[in-house]
Write a structure and sequence with these properties.
Chain lengths: 100, 500
């Protein structure tokens, strides 16, 4: 049976998610993810012509809040929890490259 | 219903009348422009939490657990943001549909959750169009809108330190999350635009629509409307070229300059045998150039998936129709109203609506004003600021004086200027009397015409013999005799009436 997910795929996704995986973890993840896609293949083999795609498992929609303000968090308290702050802002390492 | 990204919607560019060569590019080339506009919606609070949506506050004063992406914080959708999105979608002639929020995954410090909540394959608005008003030499043109979807804004980063002061050399960055979570509508236009002027007209029309429906204040200078610009070039008749996306365009003027610069750059590359690289470029308004923004490998793989913390939004026909019914008159309809009621050109109607004089014109016509004389004054003799200085009744009375032949077109212009100067209570009849613009009675005019015919028999014979240019001579003589008080049209009519 052809592999649906390769070790390289897992490595690429791990890099995007900023995860460092050991060799053993890469092998295991490839196997597990492959099984999940196998399940998707099983579903795809059914006749689903009249079935709407499911984005959510809940039979719910249109859940809203009114456009009403709630209190802000205290800035000093929040910034005290940050690794670094300056002038009321979070201080972070230099951001290079394109803003997505 | 379901729509795929990139849809099958109509592209309108083929409807456009033949355009003259764009002077910004060499003969035989054309620019293909598609704009993505992010508009901040004018809600009271953020898209997914009750933190305030306001511009210009002290940094990090409008923050809460949802805004900061703290673990366990859950988003709840702001109904008003959906309402404003629907309003805009309908004003842009979109189909409003059942929509789903999705996570757009990337790591950047202005988005602390590690993902932005946006809409992907099921945006709330799809397949619309916007009409850009007629330009100097064209007709109005429809530009396709692919989609207009809801998403949350990011925080704001300031890049600090570094020897050169350039972004790439920053020593560190400071983040303010006040803007994070502010509701945005991303309006993705189809690549139907062909010149910098069209692109500017598109943004300007879009801004007018957003403001008209109360969806956004449309202020580019405050960042409540931000434009990303996709530009490619091609030899006319050939397939599409490789496009570049230009960011950091903050003014309409900058947008036009950026497009023309980028088009030249791409044509020069192609002419020198090189290829245009698909990339994101940064517009520098000071140098008037675009430059490559360093792009991280795989940065465009956002791994979208449905946002599990939010359920579907399905406005349904009742909500959609109630929003549609409450829409105000849109700029396009305001232009059409003038074209229907008067003989104004499409361009003239665009100018009058742009100046905000159309309501005055319509009210003056309804108050018994002459439609064509009213719109002529609005198009040629009035500025936008003048609307508040005039009443519809005053403007209507002025045009009636013209129709009655009591004042000439030139005198009417002088009267109008005096009315604007004196303000809403000014009475054109009284001002006309004051300025000595007496009624030139038709029997008075007849007497003068008869006298002149007798005085210049040779010229009259020529006129009667078909030399129409002699008409000008007689009109001039009448004007001289009446010190300009005669109406040109009335004189022409009187002369023609006497022709055997």
């Amino acid at each position: 049976m052809p592999e649906r997910i390769t070790r390289d795929d897992v490595e690429a996704v791990a890099r995007l998610a900023r995860l460092r995986l050991t060799d053993a973890e890469l092998d295991l993840s490839a196997k597990e993810l492959d099984a999940i896609l196998g399940h998707a293949d099983d579903i795809a083999s059914l006749d689903l012509a009249g079935v709407e795609p499911t984005s959510h498992p809940y039979p719910l929609g249109n859940v809203f809040r009114d456009d009403v303000a709630t209190p802000s968090l205290d800035r000093d308290e929040v910034l005290a929890a940050a690794p670094a702050a300056e002038d009321g802002m979070f201080r972070v390492p230099p951001v290079i490259g394109e803003e997505p | 219903m379901s729509e795929s990204v990139g849809g099958t919607g109509e592209t309108f560019v083929t409807n456009r009348p033949q355009q003259p060569q764009n002077p910004a590019v060499p003969d035989g080339w054309e620019i293909i422009i598609g704009l993505e506009v992010h508009a901040e919606l004018a809600t009271h609070t953020k898209l997914f939490s009750g933190s305030l949506n306001e511009f210009g506050g002290e940094p990090n004063t409008n923050i809460d657990p949802v805004t900061l992406g703290l673990p366990g914080a859950l988003p709840v959708l702001n109904r008003q943001a959906v309402e404003l999105a629907i309003r805009t979608g309908l004003a842009l002639n979109c189909t409003v549909q059942r929509s789903v929020f999705a996570r757009k995954n990337y790591f950047y410090p202005d988005m602390p959750k590690g993902y932005q909540i946006s809409q992907y394959d099921l945006p709330i608005n799809v397949d619309g169009w916007l009409e850009i008003p007629a330009g100097q030499d064209g007709a109005a043109t429809r530009i396709g809108i692919e989609r207009a979807h809801l998403e949350e804004d990011t925080g704001k980063s300031s890049h600090m330190g570094g020897a050169s002061g350039r972004i790439h050399d920053a020593a560190y960055s400071l983040i303010d999350f006040n803007r994070a979570g502010v509701p945005l509508l991303e309006i993705v236009g189809r690549p139907d635009l062909r010149t910098a002027d069209e692109a500017k007209a598109y943004v300007s029309e879009l801004r007018d629509i957003l403001v008209a429906v109360g969806a956004s204040d449309g202020k580019m200078e405050e960042g409540s409307m931000r434009v990303d610009c996709n530009v490619s070039v091609r030899r006319i008749g050939e397939g599409l070229g490789t496009r570049c996306e230009i960011k950091n365009v903050n003014t309409l003027r900058g947008l036009g300059r950026a497009i023309d610069y980028e088009a030249r750059r791409q044509i020069d590359l192609i002419n020198s045998g090189e290829e245009v690289q698909q990339e994101t470029r940064h517009w520098n308004d000071d140098t008037g150039r675009t430059s490559t923004l360093r792009s991280k490998e795989e940065a465009t793989d956002y791994r979208y998936f449905p946002e599990p913390d939010l359920v579907v939004v399905d406005p349904g026909p009742e909500w959609i129709e109630s929003v549609r019914a409450a829409l105000p008159m849109l700029p396009r309809e305001r232009r059409a109203r003038l074209v229907e009621r008067t003989e104004v050109s499409a361009r003239g109607a665009a100018i009058v609506v742009e100046r905000g004089l159309d309501n005055l014109v319509v009210a003056a016509i309804e108050a018994g004003g002459d439609p064509n004389r009213t719109i002529t004054h609005a198009e040629h003799n009035l500025a936008g600021d003048d609307a508040g200085r005039l009443t519809p009744e005053g403007l209507a009375a002025l045009t009636r004086l013209e129709v009655e032949g009591a004042v000439t077109a030139t005198q009417a212009k002088t009267l109008l200027a005096a009315m604007v100067e004196r303000g809403p209570s000014a009475d054109p009849v009284a001002i006309a009397a004051e300025l000595g613009f007496e009624a030139m009675k038709s029997d008075e005019l007849d007497a003068i015409v008869d006298r002149l015919i007798a005085e210049f028999p040779d010229d009259w014979a020529k006129f009667c013999g078909g030399e129409n240019k002699v008409m000008g001579f007689f009109v001039g003589q009448v004007m001289k005799a009446t010190q300009g008080k005669a109406d040109g049209k009335a004189v022409t009519a009187a002369l023609n009436a006497r022709k055997p």
